[in-house]
Design brief:
Elements: H1 27-48, E1 87-88, E2 93-97, H2 103-110, E3 116-118, H3 134-140, E4 143-144, E5 149-153, H4 163-170, E6 175-180, H5 183-197, H6 204-208, H7 221-224, H8 228-235, E7 244-248, H9 249-254, H10 256-266, E8 278-281, E9 286-289, H11 314-335
Parallel strand pairs: 2-5, 2-6, 3-5, 6-7
Antiparallel strand pairs: 1-4, 8-9
Helix pairs in contact: 8-11
InterPro entries: NST/OST, P-loop_NTPase, Sulfotransferase_dom
Keywords: Disulfide bond, Glycoprotein, Golgi apparatus, Membrane, Signal-anchor, Transferase, Transmembrane, Transmembrane helix
Enzyme class: transferase
Length: about 350
């Protein structure tokens, strides 16, 4: 089974013991040790909760610059407009989840649209960087002209308990896009990404279950993310279902133009991105973008996308399918969509 994945995962305990006495530590060496400890802690915190740098010093209100539309290249009306003109605005739409569902693919497909301006990196504002403030968040956004939509995607928002309230406080009219995928496949994809970075990781089975093939371990993030109905319940405390579009990660692979068409409709955009923009890459196992005018080659997602999944015993897959089935059915009822995972 081909796919890609990444999980936030893994924890461990380490204990060290020592005994014996030595000469008293001199003051300069003690000071150096303290400085090294503080710097080490600072670097670790920075790695674990990185916030992107602001594009400029945040202002209380954006200054209006030129609003004249830049010229588009003849023969390429379906390419994104790149310009320094316009305003930095809060996103009107967010891809809020889910991790390893296909969010990066969807974002790259949408960026073909001339009326979509999207932040390429994940700002993690509503989960990790909220203390930076809304002015800082807005300063990260690309400039947009009148009629264009500002977007960003951070898949961890969907499973962050505080995110719905924070997003609602920014704008109760925000449109929310959730890309979902069979939770079993998603979990294995999640594990595959971590395994590529941590080869010594325990087996998928050892992490997914407690005590061999005992109870499913919902404390493991790769499992917990797939409880879509539980996460959605938290969001529905702040947003009605009319604010959501649920995109099938499977159909994003089998029919990318159809799913992207639904997203364009949801955003109130003309269907500019169509089947003429895609071709299926058999090696990677998912669709890529055809070569654009002025480009030397087609565009596919990076090497981390399309990596093979580790082999997971069928008994493990079946146990997880049985575990997720009631959660999936509840999610189908909540969204009025049957994603066909059962």
């Amino acid at each position: 089974m081909a796919g890609s994945g990444g999980l936030g995962g893994g924890s461990g305990d380490g204990k060290g013991t020592g005994s014996g006495q030595g000469p008293p530590l001199r003051a300069p060496r003690a000071l150096l040790a303290l400085v090294a400890l503080v710097l080490g802690a600072y670097c670790l915190c920075a790695l674990l909760g990185h916030c992107p740098p602001a594009a400029r010093a945040p202002a209380l209100a954006p200054a209006r610059i030129e609003l004249t539309s830049p010229a588009r290249r003849p023969g390429a009306p379906d390419l994104p407009v790149a310009s320094g003109s316009g305003l930095r605005r809060f996103p009107q739409a967010l891809i809020v989840g889910v991790k390893k569902g296909g969010t990066r693919a969807l974002l790259e497909f949408l960026r073909l649209h001339p009326d979509v301006r999207a932040l390429g990196s994940e700002p993690h504002f509503f989960d990790r960087c909220y203390d930076r403030g809304l002015a800082w968040y807005r300063s990260l956004m690309p400039r947009t002209l009148d009629g264009q939509i500002t977007m960003e995607k951070t898949p961890s928002y969907f499973v962050t308990r505080e995110a719905p309230r924070r997003i609602h406080s920014m704008s109760p009219d925000t449109k929310l896009i959730v890309v979902v995928r069979n939770p079993v496949t998603r979990a294995i994809s999640d594990y595959a990404q971590t395994l590529s970075k941590t080869p010594g990781l325990p087996s998928f089975r050892a992490l997914a279950f407690r005590h061999g093939l005992g109870p499913v371990d919902t404390a493991w993030s790769a499992i917990r993310i797939g409880l879509y109905a539980q996460h959605l319940e938290n969001w529905l405390r702040y947003f009605s279902l009319s604010h959501f579009l649920f995109v099938s990660g499977e159909r994003l692979v089998s029919d990318p133009a159809g799913e992207v068409g639904r997203v364009q409709d949801f955003l109130g955009l003309k269907r500019v991105v169509t089947d003429k923009h895609f071709y299926f890459n058999a090696t990677k196992g998912f669709p890529c973008l055809k070569k654009a005018q002025g480009s030397s080659r087609p565009r596919c997602l990076g090497k981390s996308k399309g990596r093979p999944h580790p082999r997971v015993p069928q008994a493990v897959v079946q146990r997880l399918q049985d575990f997720y089935r009631p959660f999936n059915r509840k999610f189908y009822q909540m969204t009025s969509q049957d994603f066909g995972w059962d």
